[in-house]
Amino acid sequence: MTDIDFYVQFRLEIERMYAPYVLNECETIRIEDEKTKIGILLIKDKYIVGLYILPEYRRKGYGRKAILDYVSKYGMLKDLTILNSNETAKSFWNNLFELEVIKENSIDTYYSIKSLKYKEV
Fold this sequence. Notes:
The protein is built from 3 helices and 6 strands. Helices cover about 40% and strands about 35% of the residues. Strand 1 and strand 2 form a beta hairpin. By secondary structure, the chain is an alpha+beta fold. The chain starts with a helix and ends in a 5-residue tail after the last strand.
């Protein structure tokens, strides 16, 4: 087993232990396509804790629609954190929101959400 494989296995185990806490503490929004669960949006106190869409459903507007539906129903979100190495996530969030850096480090950046760039759902 390579160091990367070992680390991934370690992270999966940590995530399994952490998941019940996150799901209990967050508002959990299921993202569906014709009654099939394809993703999840996690929000806590207007902070975007996580957004996950199954790979085969990505880049089809489901994530954007889930965020816009949430904002339409409950009001603007406040902030989020993006991994610095995740170019896809940076592009997604920067296309959706006007962001302002609050704190940046070598692993991730914490942003304040200033406004929506997208208006249509």
